[in-house]
Amino acid sequence: MGAGVLSSDYESEDLHSDGQGLTESESESDGNNAEVDANADVESSAGVYGRRPRFKEAMTDYVVEGEWGIKFVKNDKVRVRAVCQEGCKFVSYLTKLPRELTFQLKTLQLKHSCSRCYKSPRMTAKFLAKKLVGRVKDQPDIKLRSIQKKVHKKYVTHISQSKAYRAKAKVMDILEGSHIEQYNMLWDYCEELRRSNPGSTMLMKGLVQCFETAFPTQEHRSCYRHIYNNLKRRHPGILIKELFWRAAQATYIQEFEKVMSELKEVDVGAHKWLDELPLKTWTRSKFTGNAKSDALLNNMCECFNKKIIEAREKSIISLVEDIRLYLMRRFQYNREGILKFNLSCVKDFFESFTVDLNEKSCTCQRWKLTGITCSHAITCIHYNKEEVDNYVDDCYKVPAYKTCYERMILPINESTMWAKTGLPPVKPPHLRRT
Q1: What pTM, to 2 d.p., does this model score?
Q2: Backbone angles phi and psi of 76, in degrees to 5
């Protein structure tokens, strides 16, 4: 196959990723190479590239699509030369034009005398990332195995799972900004939130420290299941599990002490291990009752965690924005939903105990813990021929629900419109593979 001179119809824009860009020129010559003389009668747009990387990107597309073993043997500020495997006639030469910042393709010989190369060194994670942008944008949760299959189907080559991971990570950087860039923009992001949502509070600390700072007077509890998982490693057994569960569920101190005494008789070590934990974090008998909840499990946290599982893979601002948008939608949904109800409260009804209706208390402590009348209080209320709803805590009533969701989370501007705070950029933590 003969080589030819570049024609005026041959423009750099024709070098695209579908494998059709690098083609032979229409004219033919007797030589093996297509040498373009500086004085040749061609238009200035023929084979012209504004930057070297643009030519290299086009050549990389050609290499990967055609499964050729092409490599760059010369790559400096004024020239780029690409050749194929030893003995192959392919050659491409790009050089910088005098007194210009542009480059022109001087030599192009597309005739190959080599076999196909099925392990292309040009198929890097960076190359794959550019090809995967559209796919990952439409399917952010795409699995690495799916990426491997798509690459194999299109290019008939296998890539490792680690390369698929790196390619996807680079795509996310392209779509949402890199890990470092987003941390550097955190102060500007916070300022934009304060502008659009006055009264907002931003804390850049660990989760526990944030809660201690933002809610210093609120009690903090530990999940029963996580405590037991640590306990059973040292002290396994069904009986210990039952006693621990009874101790955690006990709503008044006398019941708690009784169960703990039974546990001590069964396993002194288990009793000592539990007794060293802060009791106010895991047994109902030590809860203050301020939260109006007797929850022992972190199921609510797990439900929220499931909602943001995709967002957790993103960079910091993208993650926070996904959570903020989710809360915007949820607040609006609940705000509209409560308008359909006219009930005065939400109804939820659960030995001998003392009940004080004036103080809204019962010595079983359930009323204090949950804010919902216990069975003993209900008996007394019915005896007085009163409405049980009148004794339920206000937090369960419609006005409280409306108050909870009445404040709106407002949208913010695009990042290019954020005010610059001029504060030193936040340094991101070191990323660790899990």
Answers
A1: 0.60
A2: -130, -160
